């Protein structure tokens, strides 16, 4: 995760060196965690879109259908509460105070039938955006985590992302 955030910030440095000063980020699934944490630490990111959003990385692993094999490998050695503590550094929920330091616009897209990033976790993220009075838009698509990449949902998702980014810097 640390390397991913460093890479994002290096990309921002490069974009600035090319003369760009209106910077945004889009992250999908695990990439939404990278995007959120990078945005929490870098005031240059003015616009952020999170395609699938969740609270604690441990919750995704513990409750997600596609990550159950990881849980099976861990649960004999650690419980969910301790795993949350161990993985706090890679969990967006920990960074809301830092994220809210600078004004920016955000888009949160999640899937109503997501069995990987469960909708209740995405709803908790939305609650945190509201609690911190952050400028955000929420879109809930009628699909699952992986079906978001299939027709027609990939077009619905893409339209939401492009529509948001088209006006977000105004």
Considering the chains and any ligands shown, give keywords for the structure.
170 residues, alpha/beta, Rossmann fold, four-stranded parallel sheet, 16% strand, globular
Spell out the blueprint of helices and strands.
Elements lengths: L1 H16 L5 E6 L1 H12 L3 E7 L5 H7 L4 H7 L5 H7 L9 H4 L5 E7 L7 H13 L3 E7 L11 H16 L2
Parallel strand pairs: 1-2, 2-3, 3-4
The main sheet orders its strands as 1-2-3-4
Number of helical elements? 8
The termini sit apart by 31 Å
Query: On the 0-100 scale, what is the average pLDDT?
Result: 96
Report on the architecture of this protein:
This protein starts with a helix and ends with a helix. The longest helix has 16 residues, at 2-17. The chain has 170 residues and is of the alpha/beta class. Helix 1 (2-17) crosses helix 2 (30-41). It contains 8 helices and 4 strands. It has a single domain (2-168), classed as Rossmann fold, CATH 3.40.50.1820. The chain is globular. Helix content is 48%, strand content 16%. The model has no long low-confidence stretch (mean pLDDT 96). Helix 2 links the parallel strand 1 (23-28) and strand 2. It has a 4-stranded parallel sheet with strand order 1-2-3-4, with helices on both faces.
């Amino acid at each position: 995760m640390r390397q991913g955030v460093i890479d994002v910030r290096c990309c921002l440095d490069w974009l600035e060196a090319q003369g760009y000063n209106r910077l945004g980020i889009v992250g999908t699934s695990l990439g939404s965690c990278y995007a959120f944490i990078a945005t929490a630490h870098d005031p240059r990111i003015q616009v952020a879109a999170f395609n699938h959003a969740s609270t604690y990385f441990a919750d995704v692993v513990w409750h997600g259908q596609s990550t159950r094999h990881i849980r099976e490998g861990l649960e004999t050695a650690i419980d969910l509460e301790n795993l949350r503590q161990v993985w706090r550094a890679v969990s967006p929920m920990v960074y809301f105070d830092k994220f809210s330091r600078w004004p920016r616009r955000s888009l949160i897209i999640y899937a109503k039938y997501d069995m990987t990033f469960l909708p209740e976790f995405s709803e908790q993220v939305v609650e945190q955006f509201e609690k911190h009075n952050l400028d955000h838009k929420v879109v809930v698509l009628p699909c699952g985590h992986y079906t978001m990449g299939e027709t027609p949902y990939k077009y619905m998702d893409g339209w939401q992302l492009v529509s948001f980014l088209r006006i977000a810097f105004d």
